[in-house]
Amino acid sequence: MTVTDRTAAARDAGVGVSLVDLRRTYGSLHALDGLSLDIAPGEMVVLLGPSGCGKTTALRILAGLDHADAGSVIVGGQDMTRVPANRRDMGMVFQAYSLFPHMTVRDNVAFGLRLRGQDRARRLERCREMLDLVGLSDLEGRYAHQLSGGQQQRVALARALAVEPSALLLDEPLSALDAKVRVQLREEIRRVQVDVGTTTLFVTHDQEEALAVADRVGVMNAGRLDQIASPVELYARPATRFVAEFVGLSNRVPARVEGGRAVLLGTRVPLLEGSETSGRGWALVRPESVHVGEEGEPNARVVSVAFLGPFSRVQCRLADGQVMVAQLPSSTAVHLAQDAPVRVEVRAESVLVVPE
Amino acid sequence: MRADATRGSIAWRVVRAVALLAFAVFFLVPLLSMADFSTRVVGGTGRTAQPWENLVQDPMLRSSIVTSLLLALLTTVLMLVLLTPTMIWVRLRVPAASRLVEFLCLLPLTVPPLVIVVGISNVYAWVSYLLGNSPLTLTFAYVVLVLPYAYRSLDAALGSINVVTLAEAARSLGAGWTTVIVRVVLPNIWPGVTSAAFVAVALVLGEYTFASLLNFETLPYVIGLLGKSDAPTSTAASLAVLVLASLLLVALTFVGRDNRRESRRDKPSRGALT
Which CATH class is domain B50-263? Predict the structure, then answer.
């Protein structure tokens, strides 16, 4: 069986999940304001947004750990809105370490299986299978306090998947870990998810994490989904100002819309859907779409150059005082001295123009 | 510099040894004096074990010991059955009520036992009418008496673990509320439960005011009575209770130490591999 075949087979094992017009208020705060979301069988959707945007509330309502004031939760075609958490058949990994401290790794993984009445031999077999999957089979006799944070979260993932849940719910599972472990573990989570094919909802406020692991990323703002799309589309074609500014860095450049194009810094750039159709506005331009060179008539001066490894971030001040950020290969940026006269141009395929 | 440090360390050790010796003398001399008095032949010379034999031979004393031990058992069980699930439930489901529960549990601490007895003596007229005049009915009053101490032990134990996350993890894996409490939360607060139980036993074995004013013959009450007619036996019983309570407190110290060690271990070890 090839990797593609295995992935396809795994995806067949997943079930579809739908959140329909969910609403939830806490006092005067609207945590969810009509959230609707469909997740295809075997798909991994990441909900991304700032603190308080409602992403964790949505996940907790899907898990049955919180309730919606209105709306419904459909899993595998069945309405689960009023089903209690322990009968929803979800696997969940939490932000805080959640292994049961009095149990070994093996007993933690077997906990859900035991509740389902599986016999000891089957439990042990499944435990080994799951611990192999997350690469911790040699630690099955340890307790939580004998594991690092990353190991604890991997065991939590194995425990959640051991019960073969309808959906896997990940509530910022990497946020308590250090940067290097986060990157390792997010790749591992994605590999395991593709292998197992469980429909997955992942909640995070880390855009890099979201773009790296998701089939689709949903950007939430004030209890609503602003846009849901593949990571590439979300980054290249943000539908709203909030998405453009929240996902990746964006320069705000004064622009004029003429004949279906944005005119900015003397360049005419095609407009993205959802842009202003006439008049003046702000064009949101990614740093990698800004070109800084020493050739041509200078229109800016270099303010600073920050070395970031293969790339450098260059800040330039235009003649009107506006500061533009460009991302250049470090091999190019190394030649730019502070206060040197340079020419700044926008070389974007398309831009989003929002009202001033 | 190293010589200064060594001198300081020796001085500190000497201070500690002197302090320990002073405390040992302060606590042990009365106990040894009691042991001496309870084994001395009154009005003669030599030693006797009669006062200690009376602890099991004297019908009133034996009955009071059994009563007090039963009271300790019933009080502990009833307190744990009432308080443990309530506190777990409040943490999990109604955290807004935690202040109210704390206030109610600590209230007995602020009212002198004498005032409480005066207040509940009328209630006890009804208790005696409904349940008979058994001294075991004191259990209800004693549960109220031990609440503040038991609450503190359980609250500290619950505060040392992330109850909500553990419960949610168990729920998401298919556990009902009973399973969450019995198989997930309780094993993790067990040292706190044990502490609460030991404190309750120690308090019940030493309680005099309630028993005396409500006229129930518990061990402390009978010790008081015997003190007027048979001082050596009274002293032997007092010493036995003191030793038992001390042993319980020592056990409590070890349970608490294990609890703290486990709490420290809960943090991920720095050197552990990922």
Answer: mainly alpha
